[in-house]
Design a protein that fits this description.
There is one protein chain. The protein is an alpha/beta fold. It is 39% helix and 12% strand. The strands form 2 sheets. A 6-stranded parallel sheet has the order 5-4-1-6-7-8, with helices on both faces. The protein has a two-stranded antiparallel sheet with strand order 2-3. Strand 6, helix 8 and strand 7 form a beta-alpha-beta unit. The radius of gyration is 17 Å and the shape is globular. The N and C termini lie close together (5 Å).
């Protein structure tokens, strides 16, 4: 592959943050008088941005509120829970170091609110690997729209086909395909029902340390 830049999804690809997102969501639900939901359930809701997450949770609780009406309290809980217990997936730091050692520019392309991204990367010790960050609210459109991927390709001055998107879900796959960008998926993340083996990815990895060998 003639890869000149690599873009990474965050939650479910680099970081397992589901427990903290679930706790923030459950604190929000409890404040509204609803029952908590399991972390496993929340894992199936992560990946399409904060508003989608809230809409799904409210619908699950039978609450007709507009997600925007509870966005502010949720974000307050999200900030409080952001660094409770996130962990890097095995091999992430090593893979990032190998890619940077080849001189490849790296970026984070996530639907997590941008303000939450840098503190999380700093906390986990990988902030220095990334030359750019695009969050779910950085641009008017977020994944699965191709705009964030195309924005990053333009920032690095390379064609979309010369970038590689690395993710864990249909949101990442669809954004990459719409951008004309190759995509690699990881098997350990939050696939939300996606058949990874039939998703049209260049490869499906069990460990991110397998990635440099593909490039």
């Amino acid at each position: 592959m003639a890869t000149k830049a690599v873009l990474f999804d965050l939650d479910g690809t680099l970081v397992d943050s589901a427990a903290d997102i679930a706790e923030a969501l459950n604190r929000t639900l409890e404040a509204l008088g609803h029952a908590r939901v399991s972390e496993a359930t929340v894992r199936g809701w992560i990946g399409e941005g904060t508003r989608h997450l809230l809409a799904t949770a409210l619908r699950h609780a039978g609450d007709a509120r507009d997600p925007d009406a509870v966005l502010a309290p949720f974000m307050a809980h999200y900030r409080q829970c952001l660094l409770r217990s996130p962990v890097l997936y095995p091999g992430v730091a090593e893979a990032l170091a190998l890619l940077r050692g080849r001189g490849l520019p790296l970026a984070v392309c996530t639907n997590k609110p941008e303000a939450m991204v840098a503190p999380l990367l700093e906390h986990l010790g990988i902030a220095g690997f990334f030359a750019a960050i695009v969050g779910g609210d950085t641009l008017p459109r977020r994944k699965p729209d191709p705009a964030p991927l195309l924005h990053l390709a333009g920032r690095f001055g390379v064609a979309p086909r010369e970038c590689l998107m690395v993710g864990d879900s249909a949101t990442d796959r669809d954004a990459a395909q719409a951008a004309g960008m190759p995509v690699v998926l990881v098997r350990y993340g939050y696939p939300r029902g996606l058949d990874l083996e039939r998703a049209g990815a260049l490869a499906v990895l069990d460990d991110l340390r397998q990635l440099p060998a593909l490039l």
